[in-house]
Amino acid sequence: MASLVSMEGVTKSFGGAPALRGVDFDLRAGEVHALMGENGAGKSTLMKVLAGVHAPDAGTIRIDGEQVTVSSPIEATALGIAIIHQELNTVPDMTVAENLALGAEPRTRWGALDRKRVLRDAEEKLARVRADIDPRLPMRRLSVGRQQMVEIARALAEDARILVLDEPTAALSDREARRLFALIDEMRSAGMGLVYISHRMEEVWQLADRVTVFRDGRSVGTSEKAEITPERVVTQMIGRNVEDLYVHDDRAPGEVVLRVRGLTDGAGIGPVDLTLRAGEVVGMVGLIGAGRTEIARMIYGADRARAGTVELDGRPVDRRSPATSIREGIGLLPESRKQQALFPLMSIRDNLVTSALGGLSRLGVLRRRAIGDVAHRQMDALRIRSAPTQEVGHLSGGNQQKVVLGRWLTVGPRVLILDEPTRGVDIGAKYEIYRLINEQVARGVAVLVVSSDLPEALGISDRVLVVRGGRIVAELDRSEATEEAVMLHATGVAASGDQTNGDRTNGDRTNGDRTNGGTNGGTPG
Amino acid sequence: MTRTAPADASAREPADRPRPSFGQVWDRYGILVVLLAMVALMAVIAPNFLSLSNGFNVARAVSINAVLAAGMTLVILTGGIDLSVGSVIGVAGVTSVLLWNAGTPALVAVLGGIVVGAAAGLLNGLLVAYLALPAFIVTLGALTYLRGTAYALTDGQPLIAEGELGFRLLGNGNIAAIPSPVVVMVITYVAVWFILERTTFGRHIYAVGGNVEAARLAGIKVRRVLLKVYLLAGLTAGLAGVMFAARVESGQPRAGEGYELDAIAAVVLGGTSLFGGRGRIHGTFVGALIIGVLSNGLVLMNVPFFTQLIIKGAVIVVAVGLDSLKNWRSG
């Protein structure tokens, strides 16, 4: 089959750091071609070369067999190339219709904006992506998934034949993702060439006709659909064999370290009871919005609890706040590293020691040599190969997450609560993070992991707590924790037999499970 | 979509290695280049400019604004602003002269002025940190009521020091042949530099300015940090007020009017981001020097006062514009 796009020997460096080292890549009409690889492996850079964002240092690009130079995004658009970036590129305060008309606004005879046509055009464009969106709504009122649909509609309206989707499902709900996949199928059938960049194996599995894996700025191989296996792709990505992605040694958990009793915010979360033992990983799973993050934050003291106690080694932790928790030996890796954990303008070193400065100073004066030593040691342990003075904002997502985790390893808490520890990181960094968690557990740290990645939660946990409606509704041992069992509890199917006491909860949540929720006594307030 | 992307795309390239680009070099030394260029220009246009005595003149004139800007840097690094520092100069100066005229020793009079400034800063800090009121509003209010206080303390009249003002050295004298305000300025900058670069408090200032929520979750007592920076801004403004009083040997209720803007300009010229988290104290120092050199040069060239204002304002906008142009190029 003839290639729609064919790129040969593409090379690109940024200030002496090679990002692409002679990459060949081809895209056929009517296929979905997935690109996989760790962050920084070169996938996005290659696509930005294709889209005219970066000029290549060397190499050729052919479209329909004809050599072209794409020296600007505008030229790319003219050649039928469109990229849907991870961070969407719309104007939030303008309406959907205005966004769709942006840059090519229809005018009336008098030169004024032709509002009627803007609206009519928008409806047509949205119909092409089968999106049921009111074009008069301001963009910001739409969910991320719908905004993405608008962007795709816009690309199609510009007659894009080559569409690059960079991590399109990162912020989508399951339903939105399914809708996107249906649209991708349709565009493929229409003969478009689609490039799909993703870390998610299942999606690639489901969608891709071919997969190309990148490592260190090189393409390490393209596989046809029939040859794709997760093991093969992972091995190609990290350049070594992975027996089992999820590291789980046999362990014998020790004494109870953390005991939570009746913790509630009085507004739908809790009461929650749970215990963590030294040297175990406990997974906290549930559907999005079930209240896992809220529970984690309340234990840490990031949000205030209305009632309930937290005991560490049998002693109650009073006046709970992040500062107190850290002093007592509880750490929290928050859900969003960008918004809640990272100091992007500060160096790796300063980010690593932020929570441990008390011990690394004398009378408030920094012990700089000690800080340098600690940072050096942590970076070795984390396997981050950068200068300690490097600004964290410039690191890849995986390395940023390792730095945030490293901050806690520097503190060395007894209890570590990890909220989505591997969200948005590539598979190599994931593996590293599992390894680091395991090291902590081996030292007797009690770890509570909140994860939306069910295989991950089940793979690394000794026990799993299922959260629904702000409460722990089931506790499953590693041996009985299957995805099916968890989903039954998480969706409430397992409890549908006794819905009669649902009136004890406030609001419209269906919560009536008393199968395994521990003590449900102690009403909020 | 794709057509608006290129400006910020390249910097996101996750090359985990520092590579000094033109932008970074300019970031670090650009403002120094501006200062040197300005000095060279002035030296050519105004022949007296490069003389030693004029150098001391500039330094002396710069010192009060520079001291003010040092404290302002701390506040702006946390993402805040302190508009009240100019009025603190008035209150603190008047207080110190009142104390002197009441017969207290010079040292007590000086400390009294500084303490009044610190107290004003403490109140700002309490309102900003613990009541979570917007800094702009809190300090705008303080700008007004502190000025009112300065007038009330003196019935609106300049307060002449009785006899020879005991601490006039702070404004006029020399310490080892160096003008004493310059010495005070240097000590202030060394102290602020030490706080920012060598103490946990300094790390916390950058952390709070860089990401408040992350700072809180990392166990930093954010409110305490905010309280302290406003306190310190008040304290340095109090010091500047005493220096002012010493220089004019009287308590002027109108002293320091509009100085907050020059201080903010020095901080921003020095490359500190008004959004917080990014900036260095030596940048502020250079920024204050630029403003001083510019004023001095314009005076030597006999440029009319109104024209001076126009030029100063334009230079600030252009310099900050160049700075953000750099951000636009590289990131």
From TrEMBL, chain A:
A Pfam family reported for this protein in Swiss-Prot or TrEMBL: ABC_tran
Alphabetical list of InterPro entries matching this protein = AAA+_ATPase, ABC_carbohydrate_import_ATPase, ABC_transporter-like_ATP-bd, ABC_transporter-like_CS, P-loop_NTPase
Is the keyword Membrane in the record?
Answer: yes
Q: Where is this region: Disordered?
A: 491-525
User: CDD domains under this entry?
Assistant: ABC_Carb_Monos_I (cd03216), ABC_Carb_Monos_II (cd03215)
Entry keywords, A to Z: ATP-binding, Cell membrane, Membrane, Nucleotide-binding, Repeat, Sugar transport, Translocase, Transport
- ABC transporter domain location: 5-241, 240-494
Question: Does the UniProt entry include the keyword Iron?
Answer: no
Query: One MF term in GO for this entry?
Result: ATP binding
Q: Which residues form a coiled coil?
A: none
Q: What is this protein called?
A: Sugar ABC transporter ATP-binding protein
What species was this sequence derived from?
Pseudonocardia adelaidensis
Automatic annotation (TrEMBL), chain B:
One Pfam family, short name: BPD_transp_2
Which segments does the entry list as coiled coil?
none
Report TM segments: 29-50, 62-92, 98-120, 127-146, 175-196, 225-246, 284-303
Q: Decide whether keyword Transmembrane is in the record.
A: yes
Q: Which domain of life is it from?
A: Bacteria
Would I find Cell membrane among this entry's keywords? yes
Q: Which InterPro entries match?
A: ABC_transp_permease
Q: Which cell locations does it reside in? A: Cell membrane
Q: What UniProt keywords apply to this chain's record, in alphabetical order?
A: Cell membrane, Membrane, Transmembrane, Transmembrane helix
Topology of the protein relative to the lipid bilayer? Multi-pass membrane protein
Name of this protein = Ribose ABC transporter permease
Could you read off the lineage of the organism from its UniProt record?
Bacteria, Bacillati, Actinomycetota, Actinomycetes, Pseudonocardiales
